[in-house]
Amino acid sequence: MSNIRRQSIISSVVIYIGFTVGLLNIYLFTKQGLFTDPQFGLYNAFIAIATTMMAFASLAMPSYINKFFPYYKDHLSPKKNDMITWALVVSSIGYLLVVIAGIILRILSSGNTLSILPR
To answer: In terms of Cα–Cα distance, which of 99, 29, 87, 34 is closest to 62?
Structure first.
């Protein structure tokens, strides 16, 4: 069996296991009376918002690392390969931008700037 075929079968199994865990998670949250419908909706909204914020904050650095790391690894010595450093710096800048946007949106939505800031 070729290496690519074996990896795709393993990947498919891992994905199906993930779907099964997610299905079990949702089943237990809804059927056991742990959450009411509005609480479960709020839980899902938090998950969706957090995923979106993570996507904006990372500024596509995971894709950048996956695409270019093999090239940099093969063509540069480990001391000259600063790609991971740049990815961390850019992701940190993205995180700060998301935090600043959150603070600005919180101030704009409340209308009172003094009560927003932590003491």
So the answer is: 87
- Look up tokens 């600063």; give the residue: 82
Residue 99: name the closest of 53, 67, 68 by CA: 53
CA–CA gap between residue 112 and residue 53 (Å, rounded):
24
CB atoms within 10 A of CB 81: 13
**In sequence order, what are the residues at sequence separation of 6 or more whose Cβ sits closer than 8 angstroms to the Cβ of residue 29?**
35, 40, 43
Residues found in the chain: 119
> Quick check: 115 pLDDT over 80?
no
**112 or 58, higher pLDDT:** 58
What are the two backbone dihedrals, phi and then psi, of residue 18, each rounded to the nearest 5 degrees? -65, -45
